[in-house]
Amino acid sequence: MKKLVIFDLDGTLLNTIADLGNSTNYALKRLGYPIHDIPSYCFRVGNGINKLFERALPEGAQTEANVLKVRKFFMEYYILHCADKTRPYPGIPQLLESLQERGLLMAVASNKYQEASSKLIRHYFADIPFVAVFGQRDGVERKPNPAVVFEIMKIARVNAGDVLYVGDSGVDMETAFNAGVTACGVKWGFRPESELQKFHPAYVVDSPEAILSLLDKENA
Question: Distance between the two ends of the chain, CA-based, in angstroms?
């Protein structure tokens, strides 16, 4: 029986790619580097913002110093513009409301930095009582390290068998595997289904409604 659903944020609950791409392009432009088309950012995100900047910088410029320079301009821009074009995926608000009505616990585990993760959840899902909203934080290993999942499980007082982990990338599926929890990949996010299937998730779904259906079956 599932008691807790842990969601990834970017590409799972929210389509954030335009604002992430525009903010990174702003920082690159400020530093005189070439910018990228927005769809290409789908394959640059997912491993934390420093990795995003490393992937966005041109070959030969991917130094730690340059990553930090991009980060500075990105963060001052993104926190002001993170909700310009970002929107929940169709059916996500209804899914969260239905899970709440069923008495299921919910949490967010993201590699997006903490300030932005918290701001976006407050902005789009203020009425949903998540037991935890965790982004990338100092001293906590990023996904696919399972530390954040274990932390959420401790807060929620549940065991691994009680958890469904929902995400859109191989990083998410690997995180679920490393934590020993049930994985559900979603097809509407940033990465192709083939990447999800590499980690053999228990489920791969093409709509939020399908998550509700599988939970109803798990908990029947």
Answer: 8
